Amino acid sequence: MRVTHHTISDAERHPAWGEPGVAFHGADLIDEKTHPSARMTVGYARAAPGGRMRAIFPYDEVLVVTGGSARVHGEDGTVYEVHPGEVLYVPASSDNTYVFDEGFEAVYVAAPPSIYAEHAVEHA
Questions:
Q1: Region of residue 117 (left: phi > 0; alpha: psi -120 to 50; beta: else)
Q2: Which 3-state string (H, E, C) describes 68-105?
Q3: CB–CB of 100/52 below 8 Å?
Q4: CATH superfamily of 8-122
Q5: In the prediction, which pLDDT does 124 show?
Q6: Parallel/antiparallel/unpaired status of strands 60-68 and 104-111
Q7: Which residues contact 103 (CB under 8 A, 6 or more apart)?
Q8: How many CA atoms lie within 13 A of 55 on its CB side?
Q9: Number of CB atoms found within 10 A of residue 1's CB
Q10: What are the CB-based long-range contacts (under 8 Å, 24+) for 26-32?
Q11: Helix, strand, or coil (residue 21)
């Protein structure tokens, strides 16, 4: 298999997507399990309005915003407001706080996949 095609509906069928009581949902669609030769993890993320999340990830991540907006408070005090069509690069080990005043949706790309997978297992 060389090329695969995914949509937001693929993420919505993911078991963790609608987990009750969780304000932030992510669904990996391309990872080491589904595509063993992939050098990245790709999925969809969704956050409920009014949510807040602090994150220090051990991997690089890119968010491509597809809906809603978010404010990202970087460790240096800079606040980034992101909207649909914008891209946010989050370097590994940076300390950021995400504020979701309205609903938020994005496609995320994380690398390297082995570090992402290890982190996901530790925080499941």
A1: alpha
A2: ECEEEECCCCCEEEECCCCEEEECCCCEEEEEECCCEE
A3: yes
A4: Jelly Rolls (2.60.120.10)
A5: 67
A6: antiparallel
A7: 46, 47, 48, 49, 67, 68
A8: 18
A9: 6
A10: 26/108, 28/120, 30/4, 30/6, 31/113, 31/116, 31/117, 32/113, 32/114, 32/117
A11: coil
What are 90's two structure tokens? 């989050």
- Cis-peptide, bond into residue 112, ω within 30° of zero: yes
For 13-64, write each residue's pLDDT tens digit.
877 776 766 677 889 999 988 889 999 999 999 998 988 999 999 999 999 9
pTM of the model as a whole: 0.89
Residue with tokens 């809603």: 68
